[in-house]
Amino acid sequence: MMFDSLQRFLFVRYPIRGAAVILHKAWKDSCQGHAYPTEIDNLIGEAMAANALMASILKFDGSISLELRNSKCLPLLLSQSRSNRTLRAMAKVECLESYSYAERSADAQLLISIEPEGEHRYQGMVNASAESLSKTVEGYFLQSEQLNTKLINQIDSNFSLGLFLQQMPETDQEELNPFSEDIWLSLQKKIESIPEAKQTEAFASLSALIAYIFPDEPIHFFQEENLRFQCSCSRATIGKIILSLGVEEARQILKEQGSIEVRCDFCNAAYSFGESDIHTLFGHKTI
User: Fold this and answer.
1) Global pTM?
2) Does domain 5-229 have CATH number 3.55.30.10?
3) May I ask the CATH architecture of the domain 235-282?
């Protein structure tokens, strides 16, 4: 199985689309250097897979973010996926104790942000399901888009796999049989019979896995796509953050610390701004 890949597909006879993703390096690179507890590392892998699947149905250039907020000992988990098939994710962990997903998701919300390039951001929020992150994403689509959605995640120490089925919007259903609840339930049952992790990894490709799960269904496969970790931080974007502090606060930090040090929450890159850098940022304002 080729890791860090995305396979989109359509059922030929039904107005139902799907996608499958398997992550390894993109997931591991995102967690590198953070020393997350194992369950948080796995939750990030699950979120990145779900995020990549959600991005696969975007019809514009831009990004989609999946943000889990206010969960127990996990104030924030954020995954971002762009239409160019790049991913990044991070988490803020307040305690290292082992908690189940149900415990961590109590009173949490899932915020989905869709950002077309050059246009306004669209956001939707749902309460987190105590069952799984996958169930929460399914609930989001049903509540905000009124689309039946099925999401399956499989986490192994070596990879994060996601499988996604979704009823197509009515505007995309031309020349297809009408949507059938019975067919939908049948396909859901099949996708839930995904092989065990060791068997999954043995398949030659994601398309081979999909064909195995739906052996009697004619399926149209799109070209398989590669995924990778990429952080969008830069010295210029960090400079804008420092500018947002204001000249007085920047001056105070310089006085106390001699420089302003910023570390990216996603990739751990460190940025240092000395007095001359801050003078350049603020221009005519006295530091």
Assistant:
1) 0.89
2) yes
3) Alpha-Beta Complex (3.90)
